[in-house]
Amino acid sequence: MSDSKENKKQIRVWCDGCYDMVHFGHANSLRQAKALGDVLIVGVHTDEEISKHKGPPVFTQEERYKMVRAIKWVDQVVEGAPYVTTLETLDKYQCDFCVHGDDITVTADGVDTYHLVKEAGRYREVKRTAGVSTTDLVGRMLLLTREHFKRGDKEYSVALEHSSNLGTDSTARSPYTGCSQFLPTTQKIIQFSSGLSPKPTDKVVYVAGAFDLFHVGHLDFLEAAHAQGDFLIVGLHTDLEVNRYKGSNYPIMNLHERVLSVLACKYVHEVVIGAPYSVTADLMDHFRVSVVCHGKTPISLDVDNSDPYKVPKLRGCFKVLNSGNSMTTEDIVQRIIRHRLEFKERNTRKEQKEQAVIKTIQKEHIKQNGNCKVVREFLG
């Protein structure tokens, strides 16, 4: 009798999207999609397609392809995937079905981008991660909000409170562009965590920082750090610590969001939540750290004007890595500010299209289920 596992057909799952400013919401959607099958294929749209249907993306297509490839649940990336998902696309990559979140995605003409696969019964839906969106992050940058910071007794917590405006305040009518509050649990961190511990023979590498608005600059650095050993630990500073050395309204993403964004990266094995700014002997001994790395970016002194890397330097295990990528979080913020009006218009158009689809769905519901006073009042 043959092994049933060997004969079992692999379930191939298709996902697609813009994946602009890849955040833990995108990663969580892909994690859920991968759980529905064995192999996850992710199609990423071109800059041209996104600009036509949605408005200008923040990141270039090459940057977005690279970011999606680095998400630990992704097996293959298809570059330049069509904006409307077709059966031909699923068949070409031998995918059984397509998976998307329970939010609405429409073309420039207001057509559901998944209508073809839905009609063919080759569509599955997963829960969208409430409390985070690219729109919300753009809003934080443009408005210099600080509501997302963790302060006082919440400084080390992983609770998320959404920021205001540009999709998240009382004027945000769409449940998809606007963000509801996301209540994190330890289970969410467990779902993102590798669950691995370093083996006694592993060379442990430690890096620390803000890793705010996780981007390709971070990605290239973590890939370089990962190559220095066998087990990579990332220390993440608290929101107030990051704000101390970066100023303004940094970090744009709070501690909880940054933890999940970093954990989703395939090069990272473990994260220290609220790591001390100075790398201490206790920290190095506790995690059996063999090498401590930092990028080419300037190193700010600690509050007492001491070198945060004094201990690893004295131990002769400090390395400055050149990842070949000079991108910083500040560069991303500057991109947004330069195109401020374009992004505001993009968010407005997106919300209007979503509202139109919601009204169409509600009207169809009334036709099928009879008149409903509450729904009629909602529709005006």
Automatic annotation (TrEMBL):
What positions belong to coiled-coil segments?
none
Question: Entry's Pfam families?
Answer: CTP_transf_like
Specify the Cytidyltransferase-like domain's residue ranges: 14-138, 207-299
Q: What is its EC number?
A: 2.7.7.14
Q: An example Gene Ontology cellular component term from the record?
A: cytoplasm
Q: One MF term from GO for this chain?
A: ethanolamine-phosphate cytidylyltransferase activity
What InterPro entries does the record point to? CCT, Cyt_trans-like, Ect1/PCYT2, Rossmann-like_a/b/a_fold
The protein's annotated pathway: Lipid metabolism; Phospholipid metabolism; phosphatidylethanolamine biosynthesis; phosphatidylethanolamine from ethanolamine: step 2/3
- Biological process (GO) annotations? phosphatidylethanolamine biosynthetic process
Report keywords, A-Z. Lipid biosynthesis, Lipid metabolism, Nucleotidyltransferase, Phospholipid biosynthesis, Phospholipid metabolism, Transferase
Protein family membership: Belongs to the cytidylyltransferase family.
Q: Which PANTHER family match?
A: ETHANOLAMINE-PHOSPHATE CYTIDYLYLTRANSFERASE (PTHR45780)
- What is this protein's record name? ethanolamine-phosphate cytidylyltransferase
Whose protein is this, by species?
A: Euphydryas editha
